[in-house]
Each structure stands twice: as C-alpha cells, then as structure tokens.
Design goal:
The complex is a heterodimer of chains A (about 180) and B (about 575). The N and C termini of chain A lie far apart (about 45 Å). In chain A, the strands form two sheets. In chain A, strands 5, 6, 7, 8 and 9 form a five-stranded antiparallel β-sheet that branches. Chain A has two domains: about 80 residues, 2-Layer Sandwich (Alpha-Beta Plaits); about 70 residues, ACT-like. Chain A, domain 2 (Alpha-Beta Plaits), CATH 3.30.70. Chain A is an alpha+beta fold and about 180 residues long. The radius of gyration of chain A is 20 Å and the shape is elongated. Chain B is globular and about 70 Å long. In chain B, the strands form four sheets. In chain B, strands 3-2-4-5-7-6 form a six-stranded parallel β-sheet. In chain B, strands 11-10-9-12-13-14 form a six-stranded parallel β-sheet, sandwiched between helices. Chain B is an alpha/beta fold and about 575 residues long. Chain B folds into three domains: about 180 residues, Thiamin diphosphate (ThDP)-binding fold, Pyr/PP domains (Rossmann fold); about 160 residues, TPP-binding domain (Rossmann fold, 3-Layer(aba) Sandwich); about 180 residues, Thiamin diphosphate (ThDP)-binding fold, Pyr/PP domains (Rossmann fold), CATH 3.40.50.970. Chain B has 23 helices and 20 strands. In chain B, helix 2 links the parallel strand 2 and strand 3. In chain B, helix 12 packs antiparallel against helix 15. The chains are: A alpha+beta (about 180), B alpha/beta (about 575). Chains A and B meet through helix 1, helix 2 and helix 5 of A and strand 6 of B. The complex binds thiamine diphosphate and magnesium ion. The site of thiamine diphosphate has 19 residues of chain B, from helix 17, helix 19 and helix 21. The site of magnesium ion has 7 residues of chain B, from helix 19.
C-alpha cells in the first residue's frame, strides 16, 4: 500500500548534500513530490522537507539510507496525520482579465489570499495553505487570465513533541567510543 | 598528535597529512593535475612508498588488497579526468564490500571548474553514489581537516571508500599555518552504537534455549577482528558455524563446527542447516541475494538474531527477531559470558552427515587425483596443501572464485580477499599487488581465470617493477567459464561468446621477466605447485583445466537455499 510520507531531515550545511540525498530517491525510483530546504534552528543546521508517495517499508529504508549519510544529523519520517503542513503559492494575473466587478477581490478575500503587488499590466496574489487549498484556489481562478503560477515546497511542523537537540543528545549517549 | 608547520604548499600538506595518518604506501598514477603532490612525494620518498599501477582501476583494487592485509585504509592517488573516471569500478567494489579506501584525485584549477577545461570531470558528482563520503578541496587551508576526516570516515563504523578531489590551485597555494589533528568525531556521524541491553538479553535467551542454533559469519567478523570471540562462542554453545563468501577465513575450515559456505555455490550442510536451525545468529553480514536464494524461502522457521553495525541493513532483506545494531566484537563480548554451555550432539551429527554426503558426491569428483581431467577444485586443493601458514588468498571472479572459496583450507592466520558484492573480474591481480606490498614473505596467492586475468593483466608491470612475491595461479579453461555454465544450465547450451581465443600467457608473463610455467596434466600438478612456492619472488603457474566443468552445488534460480543441487543429475 502506498501512502504519502514526509521526511524531515536535519543536516549540516554542506555542498553536494542535496545531490547525495536526491540520488537515494532516484536509485529507488521514488518520485519526490515536493522538496523544501532551508536553514533551521540551531547552529548551522539545515533542514530538508521531502514528500514522497511510497510504501511504509520503502519509506523507512529510504530514511535509514539518508540518515547513513555522514552529514545528516537525523532523519524522521511522518505520516500525513502526524504533520501540519503549509505551502505558499504566487499567482500573476493579467489586469485586463479582472474586469470592473469585484469578483476577484471577493474571491481573494474569501480564500484568505492577498494581493502583494500591483502593476499596470498585472497583479500578484499570494495564497498560503495546504496543497489542496492552493489547488482549489487555482481552480477558482479559471475565469481569469493567470499568466504565471508557482508553488513552494511544503514545510511542516510535526505533532510529536520531540526536539532535535534531545535526539542528538540521545544519539551521542548511544555511541560507543573506541 | 598534532603537527604544526608554516609556509608549506598544499601539496606538501597532503603528503604530511598522509604521513600523520600512518600511510606508508600509496598506489597511484601521475598526471597534470596531481604533479605538485608527486613532487612532494619525491621529497618524502623515505616515508611514503609509491607503487605505480598500470591503470587507475588497479590502484583502487591494490588499495583494497592493502587494506585487507594491513587492516587499515588503503590509499590511491590519481589525476583528474580519465584518471578519475578509471577509478569508478574499484570504488564501487570497495563500497559494496565495505573496504576502507581513501582515493585522492587531482583536479583542474578552481577557476576552470565547470568550463570543460582539459581533463576536467565532475568526479565528486559521479563518485557520489559509490562513496561513503566525498569532498572537493579548493583551498589549501581545507587540506588538513578534510584528510583527517576522510581517514576517520573510511575506517570507522562500517568501513568504505571516500574520495577527496583537490584542485591544482589548492595544491600550489602556500599555507601560513599547517596544523594536523586527527579526527576523532563528527557531530552528524555516529558510526558505532553500543549494543542495546534489551536486545542482547533477548539474544542470549534465544541462544540458551535453542535446540538447533546456527551461526553465519560475514565480512563484519573480519572487519571488527572478532575471530576469537566467534570461535569461543561457537565452542561454548556447540553451535555449527557457516560463512558467507566474504566471511570465509573467519574460522578455520578444519574446525569441527564449521559447516562451510552458505549461498549460491555454497556447501550442502551450510545451506540445508540454514533452513533447519531454530535460531540463526547472523554476524556482520547483510543477507545478500547470493546468500539467501529465494528470500521467501530463506530460513522461515528460524528466529534470526542479526548483529550488524549498519542500521540500514537491519530488516532490509530478512526480518530480524532480535536486531542488534553494533560492532560485532562488542556485541559478542557481551553475549559470551551470559550464554550457557550446551552440546547439541544430534544437530552436529546432522551437520556431519551432510558434510559426508557432499564429500562423497561432490568433493570426490572435484578432487579426484585419478581422473583424466584436471578440475579447478583439485588445483586449488593442491595449492592450499602446500601454501605456508598465514597466506593471503586473493581470487578473481567466476568459477575460479567459487572453486577457491570452496577448496582452500583456511587455517588460523590465512585470509581470503575477493570481490563479493560487485563481482569485479580483474580484481585479483591488482588486489594481490596491494596485499603483497606489505606481505613481503611471499605468502600471497592470486587465483584467476583466463577471462579476468585479461581484464587487468597490465598490472604484471607493477609486479615486475616492485618484484612483488605474488604467486599467480591461472585456471585456464579457455572459457568465460561461469558464463558457459549459465548458458549450459539456463540457455540450452547455446554457448555464445563464452569461448575465447587466448594468447600464450606464459610468453606474455615471461616478457615481464617473471618466472612462468604451464601444466596440463594431473601428474605435473604437485611438482609445479611446489616449484612455485620454492621459487623466490613472483611466479606464474598456468594450469590448463577442464573447460566443460560446472561448479556444483548450485541453488537454481528462484529456489530456496535447501533446494540446492549437488550435480546435474538431480
Ligand atoms: C567486469 C565484469 N564483467 C563481466 C562479468 C560477468 N562474468 C562473471 S563470471 C564471468 C566469466 C569469468 O571468466 P574467467 O575469468 O575465465 O573465469 P572462469 O569462470 O572461467 O573461472 C563473467 C564474464 C563480471 N563479473 N565482471
Ligand atoms: Mg575461464
């Protein structure tokens, strides 16, 4: 059975690490649905949020292979109900298609989106939400001339209360010194 | 220890770092992008011995052979571009067999990276899937720390190959302050975990209550150096022991509890008992497909205790009832005092019956001194009977490898070096060079097939130049024998491209000034082997063996380990 899994990976900030991580998915022929990488809390700690659709066993195997990389501090795996996820999307809409009535404005307001730039030829609308929210909002814009649409990778926070620093401390306690 | 120097070049820093890491031998090949380092080697040639291989693939295999014999990382040094691409097969080999190797590649100047400069290739990119770790140094100031890290990563935990690419400007730059400190830990890397108490207790309980315990030893036993713990545990519990291909030589072949090799061309007892034991203690092994046969039919009856240092191997292939993520030696040391002595007499009797059955059906045929045809097993046995104690046995890939695995009699201090995971033809000769560069006493035997020999036979040049005392045994069947066997068994004997027109090997070897001899009959075998061991320095013995021989037993494709066939008849 395939499900959506989110891998949350904490790493050092190292050139080439993205490649090392992504080839693990390539080798297993698992498509990356969404990827986000950014600095995280803590000294020089980066995080990757990767969403994949695969079986539980494979997801767990991938997690171990990722954690095996020297510069990976820790990799966690979560099911959909264990994360609170958000993404942001930008829409560039041509001014000429907006018309005189304020349908678009109502739509934006009712969808908790907002206008972040106004230019003579276009406006830019920003919408934050789940991937479904963003997809629904895009669908609702079908009557307008959307010239560009771009969506970020999703970022997540997790429901379990563990802290990275606690895990790292645990790991070093488990370590055997020569 | 800490070394401080000022005003030295990056290249000099590389050499000093290698010396600090205790490197005494480097296998390499020069080129435009690593010449500064070669120049610095020249200065320190009393400390670092450089062996010029004849192809960069040979440099990695030599470093692998060195690592196995010296029990520390092997080092190779090559240039950018083709020098670097030629390494790949060897690096992949080291990765799959967990061999600690540090590869250093020269690289074009940092300013030229990405602009298709002469001999520029993205070695960091293309070696990523086959290295444990790699890094590109573009400033001399990074050299000390990176090399220290590289050695630490290569040898710690589950060992493996690392690669450092050093741009030429970094080799030429002057370092104001060169300080060398060995690496002792990396924040994001936990190579060795303490064995978990609960798991250890469960394992002990299973072992103490087992009626038919069975231990399978992998490469991890040799890597963690726990041969004596393994033997003590086996003897205390009276627990039969088998080895994977890479685990061979972790226990003497003559040990009364030794059931043989598991897997595709393994022994009857070892494979049958896998599917009859009630507790299977797997030590430092990864249940490779050549070991398990059909996974669904692998030891379904057994409770598996899996001692393995790499967490990603746990439950990868076979679900472990008790996983112990730990170094093999640490885990066994804790388990040993908690176990109870037991006898398991009827279980051992069963093993002996299987051993007898295989001996009567398979060994008697393979080792027959009166047969008209000369079989590989017979040759290997003759070499084994005459080799000195403490021999390093290096094999190539194919039938010659399986015959060597099966018929060498591994004594206490012998050990086997072979290409398991990648099955790299051409491995043996360069790996023997690495092993013999430190085993000067002449105790390196290199067994090859006519196909594999021709893949890296240019390394005869290194054997000649450094007078390396490798005893080369060529099992010539004028065939890619293993391929011929597969075509016979699975493709209705439609032999295609398995047969080779071979050169006069003896003439080729003699052209290198190496003693060589070819024999074709039974009577000449023992005298020729004796002559080989009696002749100081390198020696090449070509034995014309039967070409239509098949290696048996075999586990047919898709079958379980207990369904192995002893001969074509059954
Ligand atoms: C580099 C490489 N290419 C191809 C193979 C596939 N292969 C496995 S065994 C074998 C035949 C080896 O022939 P030879 O070296 O003569 O040994 P023999 O089996 O005859 O003892 C081949 C082609 C391989 N293992 N490695
Ligand atoms: Mg052959």
């Amino acid at each position: 059975m395939k499900h959506k899994y989110t891998l949350l990976i904490y790493t050092e900030n190292h050139i080439g690490l993205l490649n090392r991580i992504s080839i693990i998915f390539t080798r297993h022929k698992v498509n990356i649905e969404s990827l986000n990488t950014s600095p995280s809390m803590g000294e020089n700690i980066h995080s990757f949020v990767i969403t994949i659709i695969t079986s539980r066993d494979k997801a767990e195997h991938l997690r171990k292979l990722i954690e095996k990389q020297v510069e990976v501090l820790k990799a966690f795996i979560y099911e959909e109900n264990q994360v609170i996820a958000m993404g942001v999307a930008l829409f560039k809409i041509s001014t000429s298609s907006i018309g005189a009535n304020n349908i678009l404005e109502q739509l934006i307001r009712s969808s908790s989106a907002r206008i972040i730039a106004v230019e003579p030829e276009f406006i830019v609308v920003e919408k934050t939400g789940t991937q479904d929210d963003i997809k629904n909002f895009l669908d609702s814009l079908s009557g307008f001339d959307v010239r560009e649409f771009i969506q970020s990778g999703r970022v997540v926070v997790t429901r379990p209360m563990g802290k990275l620093t606690d895990y790292l401390r645990q790991m070093s306690e488990m370590e055997e010194k020569d | 220890m800490e070394t401080i120097k000022s005003g030295i070049s990056g290249a000099e820093a590389v050499t000093l770092a290698l010396i600090e890491e205790g490197v005494d031998t480097v296998f390499g090949y020069p080129g435009g992008s690593n010449l500064p380092i070669y120049d610095s080697f020249f200065t320190h040639k009393d400390k670092i011995n450089h062996i010029l291989v004849r192809h960069e693939q040979g440099a990695v295999h030599a470093a692998e052979g060195y690592a196995a014999a010296a029990k520390k990382p092997g080092v190779c040094m090559v240039t950018s571009g083709p020098g670097a691409t030629n390494l790949l097969t060897g690096i992949a080999d080291a990765q799959l067999d967990s061999v600690p190797v540090v590869c250093i590649t020269g690289q074009v100047n940092v300013s030229q990276l990405g602009y298709d400069a002469f001999q520029e290739t993205d070695v960091v990119g293309f070696s990523m899937p086959v290295t444990k770790w790699n890094y590109q140094i573009t400033r001399a100031s990074e050299i000390a720390e990176t090399i220290a890290k590289a050695f630490f990563i290569a040898r710690s935990g589950r060992p493996g190959p690392v690669l450092i690419d050093i741009t030429k400007n970094a080799q030429n730059e002057i370092i104001e302050n060169f300080e060398y400190r060995k690496c002792t830990g990396i924040r994001s890397y936990h190579p060795k975990l303490k064995p978990q108490e609960d798991a250890l207790n469960e394992a002990v309980m299973l072992l103490n209550n087992a009626k038919r315990p069975f231990m399978v030893l992998g490469h991890g036993v040799l890597l963690s150096g726990c041969k004596s713990e393994v033997k003590t545990l086996a003897e205390k519990l009276n627990m039969p022991v088998a080895c994977t291909l890479l685990g061979l030589s972790s226990i003497e072949s003559s040990h009364p509890l030794f059931a043989g090799m598991v897997g595709l061309h393994g022994n009857l007892a070892a494979n049958k008992m896998t599917n009859e034991c009630d507790v299977l203690l797997a030590v430092g092994m990864r249940f490779a497909d050549r070991v398990t046969g059909n996974v669904q039919k692998y030891a379904p009856q057994a409770k598996v205790i899996h001692i393995e240092i790499d967490p990603s191997e746990i439950n990868k292939v076979i679900a472990a009832a008790v996983p112990i993520v730990s170094d093999a030696k640490s885990a066994l040391k804790k388990i040993l005092p908690l176990t109870r002595s037991s006898s398991h007499a009827s279980w051992i009797e069963k093993m002996n019956a299987y051993k007898k059955q295989e001996s009567e059906t398979v060994f008697s045929r393979d080792l027959d001194k009166n047969s008209k045809i000369l079989r590989m097993g017979r040759v290997v046995k003759a070499v084994s009977d005459m080799m000195p104690e403490g021999t390093v046995i290096v094999t190539d890939v194919g039938q010659n490898q399986m015959a060597s695995a099966r018929y060498f009699d591994y004594k206490k201090n012998d050990f086997l070096v072979t290409s398991g995971g990648l099955g790299t033809m051409g491995f043996a000769l360069p790996a023997s060079i690495g092993a013999s560069s430190i085993k000067k006493d002449g105790a390196v035997v290199c067994v090859m097939g006519d196909g594999g020999f021709q893949m890296t036979m240019e390394e005869l040049g290194a054997v000649m130049q450094y007078k390396l005392p490798v005893k080369m045994v060529l099992l010539n069947n004028n065939f890619l024998g293993m391929i011929r066997q597969l075509q016979e068994l699975y493709y209705s004997s439609r032999y295609y491209f398995g047969e080779m027109a071979n050169p006069d090997f003896v003439k080729i070897v003699e052209a290198y000034g190496i003693n060589a001899k070819k024999i074709t009959s039974q009577e000449d075998l023992e005298p020729a082997v004796k002559e080989m061991f009696d002749t100081p320095g390198p020696y090449f013995l070509e034995v014309q063996v039967e070409k239509s021989e098949n290696i048996y037993p075999v586990i047919p494709a898709g079958a379980g380990v207990d369904e192995l066939l002893l001969s074509p008849e059954n």
